[in-house]
Amino acid sequence: MKRKQFFLVPIIAFAIFLLFNYSTCFCPCSCISYDTDIQPCKWDSISSPNDDILEIDTVVIAETNNIDTSKPIIDSLIIVRGRIEIPAIKDLNWFIQHKYYVMEYDTGQRHSVWVAYVFDSIYNLKNVKRSDAWGFDPIIPQRYQCLNSVRQTFNEFGYDRGHLCASEDRVFNLTANEETFYYTNMSPQLSWFNQQIWKNFEEKVRKWAQADDCDTMYVVTGGAINPGVEVIGKLETRNNVTIPKYYFKALVKRQGDSFEGIAIWLENKKYESAKVSYEYMITIRELEEKTGINFFPNLKYALPDNPNLEDEVETRRDTSKWPL
């Protein structure tokens, strides 16, 4: 009898492992996904780890019920109300709300579509040091993330584990910084690109956010991976992470009822100079055309007396508002 019980132990342990690593949607916040073996979760509401409910609107492009996976999929867009920094979300991807940033994640490419967050008087503070708390994102099943050996694997191909929400962007408390080290927030960036020009633009964004003419800075950043956007390829690893050819930042800064926008578009390569330059800065509308992302759909509701605010901000490129 004891021998039979002994044999049951590894079987039960394996069953528990499968339950927690391969369940359809076990995350602490509601999320969505689409893959051949993971079906979309319901979008009745999106809840955060704090149990705050985010209201949503659905802009239907095509019905996604009863999907025929043998045909091309045209998905719907989700608009999260009241959060200026959150772009429209494709309902075939995962929406992940961590405590201090949010993202849209493509499980098929093992890469985020974008990462969004805010700077303000609290988030601008520097109270902690870099945590180096590398680890799996607790919301996404591990098989859809970079592997434990991601550092060695990336280095073998000449890439860094590039942060999208930078570690230095979240140093006002330890939890915020630790969240930036989730593998879902990593992207394979060429070492020179990550450590030189991308880093310099990250520093410039922080300075803009701390300037006197900015109460709040809304940031959307990422590697461009949507269909139709050229990519370098995939890392030849077990999970085949997509390598973006281009990286971007969409920025809107606010002071009271005044809004200004700008976008940054960079190629994942070594430039002759790592200097921040206006030549890499375009309008947000131009960035939308390049990436296929609707960046700030909630701007139209930010000022009730100005329904044209989104168009005004996204089509304007006033470099005098973004001093280098």
List the strand order in the largest sheet. Answer: 6-7-8-11-14-15-16
Q: Tell me, what's the shape?
A: globular
Helix-residue proportion: 10-25%
CATH topology: Extracellular Endonuclease, Chain A
Secondary structure elements and their pairing?
Blueprint: H1 2-21, E1 46-47, E2 53-54, E3 56-59, E4 77-80, E5 89-90, E6 94-97, E7 102-106, E8 111-119, H2 150-156, E9 159-163, H3 174-179, E10 186-190, H4 191-195, H5 197-210, E11 216-223, E12 231-234, E13 242-244, E14 246-255, E15 258-267, E16 281-282, H6 284-291, H7 309-314
Antiparallel strand pairs: 1-2, 3-4, 4-5, 6-7, 7-8, 8-11, 9-10, 11-14, 12-13, 14-15, 15-16
In a nutshell, what does this entry contain?
With 324 residues, this protein is α+β, with helices and mostly antiparallel strands. It has helices at 2-21, 150-156, 174-179, 191-195, 197-210, 284-291, 309-314; strands spanning 46-47, 53-54, 56-59, 77-80, 89-90, 94-97, 102-106, 111-119, 159-163, 186-190, 216-223, 231-234, 242-244, 246-255, 258-267, 281-282.
Description:
- This protein is an alpha+beta fold.
- It has a single domain (22-321), classed as 3-Layer(aba) Sandwich (Extracellular Endonuclease, Chain A).
- It is built from seven helices and 16 strands.
- The chain has helices at 2-21, 150-156, 174-179, 191-195, 197-210, 284-291, 309-314, and strands at residues 46-47, 53-54, 56-59, 77-80, 89-90, 94-97, 102-106, 111-119, 159-163, 186-190, 216-223, 231-234, 242-244, 246-255, 258-267, 281-282.
- Strand 4 (77-80) and strand 5 form a beta hairpin.
- The longest helix is centred in the first third of the chain and has 20 residues, at 2-21.
- Residues 16-74 have low confidence and may be disordered.
